[in-house]
């Protein structure tokens, strides 16, 4: 979780655009205090060397630099400026390899932009503002589409990988509640959790999110903090869509396989799994744990059940009954299967 503000009531914050006075306090908590710098929306002409010079100013006093408003909408002029800026970032990376470079990306996203970020910075945070700014300024109705369309080009450029190596991309959410006229009441805890659950389902490779400001309400901010803990740091056990399979065996029976995933950051405790066919229990078992990992080859276990159905249509279901010391994202998956 990263923030564009000085809010120390968030426990699980990893980076903050800060002022000099906050550097030591950030360091005490393991938070990267970053110097603020304007991005490509700043008027004027520059080249890569000028960008490098500007970003390197006073950089020795911070853990890195947080670059605000980089990107914009697709045009040749915007692309030329953007490419010069990312080339300048690469010079900063060569000059100061120990500094953390973090960019807030505004406007639209497209694969060429995302590819240009590769190797130029550590983290790109997409400005996917769904509580206030998107609806108010852009007329967004379907906020989930707004999130997904921005994230897709980063996924196409292979920048969502959770390995911690190279440039990574996460999205961000505006928590503004009373900062701007007309925003009061925009934040809702249930809506916030629904957004986080959507991100975990749709983009499980993305292992965090950013926030623009806080809600101006301590209890609401602590709720957001808990969502980071529960849905990213804790074990997050789930049965993802399409992970209930049927295979016919040589003896005429069928093998029903359910894949159980853990997309969190820690190994789970015991996970109880049931598999049903037409509402009748085929198998009940307990996995001692489901390991965390960076991909399905590391974080997924399979449960198998033998099945001898009659011909016709059938309904199959896998259910996660319980998962010790874990968050359960989606507790069941169903599929239909026709036996000739």
Quick take:
This protein has 340 residues and is α/β, with parallel strands linked by helices. The chain has helices spanning 23-28, 48-56, 76-95, 111-117, 133-138, 143-156, 189-202, 218-233, 296-299; strands spanning 2-3, 15-18, 32-38, 64-71, 100-106, 123-127, 168-174, 210-212, 236-238, 244-248, 254-262, 271-277, 280-287, 300-307, 312-323, 327-328, 332-339. 28% of the residues lie in helices and 31% in strands.
Strand-helix topology:
Elements: E1 2-3, E2 15-18, H1 23-28, E3 32-38, H2 48-56, E4 64-71, H3 76-95, E5 100-106, H4 111-117, E6 123-127, H5 133-138, H6 143-156, E7 168-174, H7 189-202, E8 210-212, H8 218-233, E9 236-238, E10 244-248, E11 254-262, E12 271-277, E13 280-287, H9 296-299, E14 300-307, E15 312-323, E16 327-328, E17 332-339
Parallel strand pairs: 1-2, 1-8, 2-3, 3-4, 4-5, 5-6, 6-7, 7-8, 9-16
Antiparallel strand pairs: 9-11, 10-11, 11-14, 12-13, 12-15, 15-17
Key features of this structure:
eight-stranded parallel barrel; TIM Barrel; 2 domains; five-stranded mixed beta sheet; Immunoglobulin-like
- Number of discrete domains: 2
Provide the β-strand percentage band: 25-35%
Please count the beta strands (DSSP E, at least 2 residues each).
Answer: 17
Class from helix and strand fractions? alpha/beta
How do the SSEs run, as a string of H and E?
A: EEHEHEHEHEHHEHEHEEEEEHEEEE
Low-confidence runs of at least 5 consecutive residues: none
Net shape? elongated
Enumerate how many helices there are, as a single number: 9
If classified by CATH, what would the architecture of the largest domain be?
A: Alpha-Beta Barrel
